[in-house]
Amino acid sequence: MRIWSRDLIKVVLLAILACPRAFSDASNPPIEKRVESAFVFQFTKFIEWPSLEGPNFSICIVDDAELQSLMNEITRDKSISGHPIKIEAYNKSQISEKFDACEVLVLPKGRDHGVLDFLHQFKGKNTLVVTYGQDLAKEGAGINFYLSEDRLKFEINQGVLSKTSIRPSGQLLKLARLVN
Predict the structure, then answer these.
(1) Do the Cβ atoms of 40 and 141 come closer than 8 Å?
(2) Residue 3: inside a domain, yes or no?
(3) 39-86 pLDDT, tens digit each
């Protein structure tokens, strides 16, 4: 049996430290993703929704299988205004034809993936668009996640939501950074 050299052990340890996700348990998502999914679900409870027409309350998630899985767990057997919550997964090419079916649309993290195009497409629609990136609420998202001092926080664009029938509660507004 060959003994590993100290240099090889250092390289392996550095790789593990540099890429912790690659060595983490896939069934245990990062805390940031778990917090994001919990926030999205809680948002639905602190918003006054316009009359819901379909049989389900649909939360549509674009290009994020990990978030979809977590949302399915959190919302199992839950409902909003008597409508069962249904988590739907789409890729970015599908969502433009399906947006009427979404009460909440969660877009991929960052500015790429056509996020700005989606924000323009959903302007004035009764769909709560949730994003995650620098200044995306100012660009037209209803709610946007951002990191501040290594904490996940959110901002609400009241100007965007005022042009829809979606009304966040005063409690939710107190917790958010407000932008217009």
Answers:
(1) no
(2) no
(3) 999 999 999 998 787 899 999 999 899 999 999 999 999 999 999 999
Share of the chain above pLDDT 70, in %: 80
Range of the domain at 131: 29-179
- Domain assignment present for 6: no
Nearest in space to 109 (alpha carbons), one of 156, 62, 43: 62
Check: CB of residue 90 under 8 Å from CB of residue 127: no
Has residue 13 been placed in a domain?
A: no
pLDDT tens readout for residues 132-152: 998 899 999 999 999 999 889
Q: Which residues contact 12 (CB under 8 A, 6 or more apart)?
A: none
CA distances 6 to 9, 11, 12, 13, 20, Å, are: 5, 9, 10, 11, 21
- The total number of structural domains that make up the chain: 1
pLDDT at position 1, please?
42
Q: Is 9 inside any structural domain?
A: no
Strand partners, 85: 57
3-state secondary structure of 140: coil
The pLDDT score that the predictor gives to residue 49 is 92
What three-state secondary structure class fits 84?
strand
DSSP 123: T
